[in-house]
Amino acid sequence: QVQLLESGGGLVQPWGTLRLSCAASGFTFSLRAMRWYRLGPGKESELDTSITSSGGVTNYAASVKGRFTISRDNTNNTVYLQMNSLKPEDTAVYYCTDPLENWGRGTQVTVSS
């Protein structure tokens, strides 16, 4: 049974930082690309970042490029999202997902002063 468990969200001030984690189980993590999506209030889901199975290639949405960094630890079956210089518009529920459309429950990120 595939499980994806996000953590690390919270309330942060503008220009602050957060590091999200997604612990994966139930499949061979090192063989799957992973993605982080987000769903903001009143918005459609947006693709934020993706990373290949080896971690060698990453992609970012224009809105987060240069501020967010995706990485992974295939030994510990975890994918990370380092978020710097956070803006109020980054407020959303962040989900990790895999190419087979497995989703975690999400973690809330709120950027507000």
Outline of this structure?
The chain is mainly β.
Major β-sheet strand ordering: 2-10-9-4-5-6
Shape: globular
Termini distance? 40 Å
Structural class: mainly beta
Instruction: Name the helix and strand elements from N-terminus to C-terminus, one letter apiece.
Output: EEEEEEEEEE
For the sheet with most strands, the description reads: 6 strands, mixed
Number of helices: 0
Question: What is the helical fraction, as a range of percent?
Answer: under 10%
Which regions contain 5 or more consecutive residues with pLDDT less than 50?
A: none
Average pLDDT rating: 94
Overview of the molecule:
The chain has 113 residues and is an all-beta fold. The protein has no helices and ten strands. The chain has a six-stranded mixed beta sheet with strand order 2-10-9-4-5-6, with no helix packed on it. Strands 1-3-8-7 form a four-stranded antiparallel beta sheet, with no helix packed on it.
Strand and helix map with partners:
Blueprint: E1 3-7, E2 10-12, E3 18-25, E4 34-39, E5 46-51, E6 58-60, E7 68-73, E8 78-83, E9 92-97, E10 107-111
Parallel strand pairs: 2-10
Antiparallel strand pairs: 1-3, 3-8, 4-5, 4-9, 5-6, 7-8, 9-10
